[in-house]
Amino acid sequence: MQKLLFHEIHQKSRLSVKEVNDALKEFHLYSSQWSILFCLKQFGEMTQKEIWQYLNVEAPTVTRTLMRLEHSDWIVRKEGEDKRERLVQLSESAKTMVPQIEKRIQEVEEGLLSSLSEAEQEQLIELLKKIGNH
Amino acid sequence: MQKLLFHEIHQKSRLSVKEVNDALKEFHLYSSQWSILFCLKQFGEMTQKEIWQYLNVEAPTVTRTLMRLEHSDWIVRKEGEDKRERLVQLSESAKTMVPQIEKRIQEVEEGLLSSLSEAEQEQLIELLKKIGNH
DNA sequence: CCCATATACTTACTTAGGTAAGTAATTTTA
DNA sequence: TAAAATTACTTACCTAAGTAAGTATATGGG
Question: What is the complex's ipTM, to 2 decimals?
Fold first, then answer.
């Protein structure tokens, strides 16, 4: 029983990443890159630590993705007041593109969730949040 | 709103993989390898296609994981009647280990789900199944 | 003040998963 | 029945994410 549950979570996680990646192709982006761009759009300038804490991933994962985003001019990094920190920001061109991309991603998500009512979506998120709270 | 939902699925998926990997360390196994061993325990001899279809992953993913499992003597492969196919089976030593591992994994899963009632677990799986059915 | 410790980030290496293209065996079709 | 198409698997290469260990800066205690 429980096995089916994790099987299902795992599969839907992969499915949503796949569809998001597909939609992001036209922007030459990947889902994890988008996660960071969205994060920066929401919160403005952030340290790398703030990013990986918010996304709940390890620091090296963020380092790697930021390197790619920097290389393709989606983000800009500068030294922090604390010289160990690096402050990350959307580039000017990213600022104009992000709203368009956001709209496209929203469509994908709505498609994936079209079989669930608003109430069911709320319910699902509440149940998911309960996982791992021991 | 919807973003939080996928954010949550993604995170819980990673969390469960992480905890399962941690439990599997003592057996020198990884979660995806376990998925295949469990599959073979349930269904007996399978072709690689049957495995990737059941797990809903791509063929190369299974090829790679099976190579590792074969190398560490968890599985055995032989040519099928159709010579393009390869029939996969648990090794003799795997057959004796798998029940022990299964028990350990069950504990992990129960821990992760300990905040949810049986009814909530059922509900969650039903809602997850609805994702992507357009 | 200086040394030990902690913090922020990076590097190197591992598995997981995807796509695209290749190979060999089988099946379909003309 | 020979050529074309399909199928099963593999190889090569990409991103994602984790752990362990390294580097450089900051901080706190003696």
Answer: 0.89
